[in-house]
Write a structure and sequence with these properties.
The chain is α/β, with parallel strands linked by helices. It folds into two domains: 158 residues, Lyase, Ornithine Decarboxylase, Chain A, domain 1; 245 residues, Alanine racemase (TIM Barrel, Alpha-Beta Barrel). The chain is 30% helix and 23% strand. Strands 4, 13, 14, 15, 16, 17, 18, 19 and 20 form a nine-stranded mixed beta sheet that branches. The chain has an eight-stranded parallel beta barrel with strand order 5-6-7-8-9-10-11-12, surrounded by seven helices. Strands 1-2-3 form a three-stranded antiparallel beta sheet. Helix 2 packs parallel to helix 9 and helix 6 packs parallel to helix 7. The radius of gyration is 22 Å and the shape is elongated. The protein binds pyridoxal-5'-phosphate (PLP). Pyridoxal-5'-phosphate binds next to helix 10.
Length: 420
């Protein structure tokens, strides 16, 4: 189970350590729930993914997994840019000092203000709607990609497939080609094409087929428009293990295979090898983060044992949204045998607020710390204030030091939004 936790995870004197800091010390200093990011894991992942993209390739962090200024800075330090999908995410990237050249702007419905901000920063904008070349040029955008949906269904949760026909993202080939032509006519520099098949992909099947179709589509654009894509942006989607029973191929190997396949497919269609751009989110920050909760009420019922923690669907809505399965470790008694089969309940007024349906942990007691691994992506990023609960804090830990990278929201923060 420790292999689901960040690289630095160790058990010492019966206690889980992350980034060289004891779980109890982290909880005492920063409170719980607390998302602890491991700097070592983030840096190792970033380096491996850069290598996977190849010499001409580039890696843009899929910000939606967790927009955070400190994380942007750390990843930039490793040579990564970021893909942003809203004016808010763009503002986070800007606050971290990323320049337009380090950013790719996404969105199936970008408004004029977002496009103007993107133009001001001179980012690459991924065109995603029939009239977006016109809107982008009016806003002053200079460089673009065109997002195409090639009709491939990925075998993942229906809420996170994006490359199928009928998707709200991108445009099917005929419309995408018209958009490329329109963008060129309007004087936009169209660098290349973008695809994103879906998230948490279980294997390479859907991506391989998408890349094959992408190269054919690129050849069709060359033949009918006299325009060649120099960039193949393959999006993100590389999965991680959240649970011991998850069998997911290694994300870095997949990314490397995807990049090589794209270069080969373009060459096979008589096209110049493209620069491959990748936009990994989950596989970059997912395993790097683990969440610490404090155990409260323990109810040993005939039907099951409930272990209630001080967070839940407000800090991690993935069990409700995607039927996501997690596991947990008693962080303060990590070397005791996992004797008790329990369900981990959140603290919200909702029967469905169950973080983990079924997990075995050391006999739980009020005050224990529970650690849930692989919670660095799409947890805090999707968090809410349900039941008037403030969002948790996040820290970055390394070599025995931990520092706050996002403070805990207080009730005062929430009340500040209220008008009489
Ligand atoms: C366009 C685009 N790029 C990148 C990503 C990141 O995906 P993942 O976190 O699965 O790597 C997403 C996720 O939805 C996306 O829509």
């Amino acid at each position: 189970m420790l292999d689901l936790f960040p690289e630095s995870a160790r058990i010492a004197d019966g206690e889980l350590m992350l980034g060289g800091v004891r779980a109890a010390e982290l909880a005492e200093r920063f409170g719980t729930p607390l998302v602890v990011y491991c700097e070592e894991t983030l840096r190792l992942r970033a380096r491996a993914l850069r290598e996977a993209a190849g010499r001409e390739g580039r890696v843009f962090y899929g910000t939606k997994a967790f927009p955070n200024v400190a994380l942007f800075r750390l990843l930039r330090d490793e040579g990564l840019g970021a893909d942003v999908a809203s004016a808010g995410e763009l503002a986070f990237a800007r606050a971290a000092g990323l320049s337009g050249d380090e950013l790719v702007v996404h969105g199936n419905n970008k408004d004029a203000q977002f496009l103007r901000l993107a133009a001001e920063m001179r980012t690459v904008v991924v065109l995603d709607a029939p009239d977006e070349a016109a809107l982008a040029t009016a806003a002053g955008v200079e460089r673009a990609l065109v997002r195409v949906t090639l009709g491939v269904d990925a075998d993942t949760h229906e809420a996170i497939v994006t490359g199928h026909h009928g998707s709200k993202f991108g445009l099917p080939p005929a419309e995408a080609k018209t958009l490329v032509g329109d963008a060129l006519e309007r004087g936009l520099e169209v660098l290349g094409l973008h695809v994103h098949v879906g998230s948490q992909l279980p294997d390479f099947t859907a991506q391989a087929e998408t890349i094959r179709r992408l190269a054919e589509f690129a050849a069709e654009c060359r033949d009918s428009l006299g325009w060649e894509a120099r960039v193949a942006d393959l999006g993100g989607g590389f999965g991680i293990r959240h649970h011991p029973e998850d069998a997911v191929p290694d994300a870095v190997e997949l990314a490397s295979t995807a990049a090589a396949t794209a270069r080969y497919a373009f060459a096979s269609n008589g096209l110049a090898e493209p620069a491959v751009w990748l936009e990994p989110g989950r596989c970059l920050v997912g395993r790097a983060g683990a969440t610490l909760y404090t155990v409260g009420a323990v109810k040993r019922l005939r039907e099951r044992t409930w272990v209630a923690v001080d967070g839940g669907m407000s800090d991690n809505p993935r069990p409700q949204l995607y039927d996501a399965r997690y596991t947990a470790l008693s962080a303060t008694r990590a070397d005791e045998p996992a004797t008790d089969a329990v369900s981990v309940a959140g603290m919200h007024c909702e029967s469905g607020d169950v973080l983990i349906d079924d997990v075995s942990i050391a006999a739980p007691r009020r005050g224990d710390l529970l650690a849930v691994p692989a919670t660095g992506a799409y947890t805090l990023a999707m968090s809410s204030n349900y039941n008037g609960v403030g969002r948790p804090a996040a820290v970055l830990a390394r070599d025995g030091n931990a520092r706050l990278i996002r403070r805990r929201e207080t009730v005062e923060d929430l009340l500040a939004l209220e008008e009489e």
